[in-house]
Amino acid sequence: MNERSRHDDISSASGATPASTQAQPDAHTHAQPRSGGTIRLTMAQALVRYLAAQRVASEDGHGVEPLFGGVFAIFGHGNVAGIGEALYQHRDTLPTLRAHNEQAMAHSAIAYAKAHFRRRMMAVTTSIGPGATNLLTAAALAHVNRLPVLLLPGDIFVSRAPDPVLQQLEDFSDGGVSANDAFKPLSRYFDRIVHPAQLLSALPRAIHVLTDAASCGPVTLALPQDVQAQAWDFPADFFTPRVVRFHAPAPRSDDIDAACARLRQAQRPLIVAGGGVLYSRAADALQRFAHAHGVPVTETQAGKSALAWNDPLNAGALGVTGSSAANALAHDADCVLAIGTRLQDFTTGSNTLFTQADVIALNANAFDALKHRGFVVQADAKLALDALAGPLQGWHAERAWTARAQKLSAGWRDTVSTLTHAPQRDGVLPYEGDVIGAVQRSHPHSASDDIVVCAAGTLPAELHKLWRAGRPGAYHVEYGYSCMGYEIAGGLGVKLARPDREVIVILGDGSYLMMNSEIASSVMLGAKLIVVVLDNRGFGCINRLQQACGGAPFNNLLDDCAHGPQGVPRIDFAAHARALGAQAEHAHNLAELEAALQRARAAERTYVISIDTDPARTTEDGGWWWEVAVPEVSTRPEVRDAHAKYAAQLAARAEAPTPAAAAPAPASGDHHE
Description:
Elements: H1 3-13, E1 38-42, H2 43-53, E2 54-57, E3 64-66, E4 68-73, H3 83-89, E5 96-98, H4 102-115, E6 121-126, H5 130-133, H6 136-145, E7 149-155, E8 189-192, H7 199-210, E9 218-224, H8 225-228, E10 231-235, E11 242-243, H9 253-265, E12 269-273, H10 275-279, H11 283-293, E13 297-299, E14 314-317, H12 324-332, E15 335-339, H13 345-348, E16 358-363, H14 366-369, E17 375-378, H15 381-389, H16 399-420, H17 432-441, H18 446-449, E18 451-454, H19 459-466, E19 475-477, H20 486-497, E20 503-508, H21 509-514, H22 518-525, E21 530-535, H23 540-548, H24 573-579, E22 583-587, H25 590-602, E23 607-612, H26 637-654
Parallel strand pairs: 2-11, 4-5, 4-6, 6-7, 7-9, 8-9, 12-13, 12-15, 13-14, 15-16, 16-17, 18-19, 18-20, 20-21, 21-23, 22-23
Antiparallel strand pairs: 1-10, 2-3
């Protein structure tokens, strides 16, 4: 099923007619034609009509489809009368989807955009008060991950006639502040619409941010409830359907020349593939570049799946959650080409992993590239890789380096196969790696077809190392914000974006208990998920970290928490999921899990499987140091020992070498150093 037909299916499910796919192919969002005439609309009606008019070229290159796949909405007194009525009028061209939690529905919208590599997106509307502030965590998540979502929270009355209105937060020193001002540091663009005419500038600005590779992120338009209902004479051509063009910066020729000069000096180069490779649709360009020049590729959490898992030059995950192959190569590389990554601490091992290397940071956003003392090439990943190809023709990494990378990568693939095919021993609980193996064995082509969704706990580390991603987008792990509760809601958004793929949400019991309401939404929308819940009876990941820092097991596993005379509850996740409308069962071992997964794949609606797992065991292969501050003073000898090890790591980092190649910058690039 293609994307356009899925959009039509969503519309039809709500009793609407299919969306129009006609548009002006040469129209530009920011160059609107002027044909005269006005149309009187409320602010809310105009906003919804404008969103419904935005188009994007379809993925297959034939025709166009709506830029916005729909609007998630939970109505309240701050949006039901204004934007609610407007959404009803346009439900045939802009489907409205109801959810059960505001944060969760925003996660779904964000995941929808991520699954579309930022080429399509959704909007989210809430009432004022808790409806709006429930979006704050999701706004931060979208900001950290550079993902587009349009947030439309209701706001207080501009007139202040009923001041204070129900749910209004009052600032004792500033009468112009509402709860929505909390979105300002969490948004890439924020505006409060205090007059209908303001939409003429606010909406094009919002679309520009949402579709710009450098500034992409959440946009918040706060909508005062009285202004939502106010009418104004809008120019009719403001609502002409138009094809949005996505903006991505092309590289400067002098930056390309400088990057090529650095690469030609390198004998042991390494590529770090980040999310920007996927968002710029540069996977093919990356594969061509790596093979033409014999450069091994490592992957961040956001960049995993940019190169097929079995590509001879794919060394796997990099960093704290990385493979032994990738980290060994990073440790010895003399030049790192970081593409579309902001080089956060899990990738760099808290800035200890490739300190000896000359770093070339290729990124659409200069802020994200200005890390690790690297030389910056501000550009779209695909455009930059294409620009590098010509000048680097004939250049190749040291042959022994390429051969070593291929040998290490093949060895890591063998390790992954061994880890994910280990038989379960009697009386021993499985761990995350065992479950990952069972999931992938349950479908012979899962590496190509399945999309795995996760966000927090131990699983992102295990998935980063062990999941076999066969094509771009097969790995969907939110690890920029590592937000517990994203998983099921995110899975819903992925399924809406990719209805023809099996979407498998893997999460821990902690994340499930934190946010599970969108199981009911997935059933209601007919967006089938397979949800695998690993029950280790608490926050196993943080429990291990707590003890690694010398702390006593405390307040993480349920047995180590304060509890009343009834003791710690046994939670039946399968029964709970059935109560939300899903099919569900509990697997007692890996064999039962594989059988349950077969039933889940054959099911027509969301299917939840729970299995008990070991909270202590993890994959020992791979990994790298991660800086977590340990108390300098403690009565516990375990904490004092942990601090001594921490101090030694800090000293080692301080003594790390500075790459000689990074010191003198080419004259053309001095402004980037």
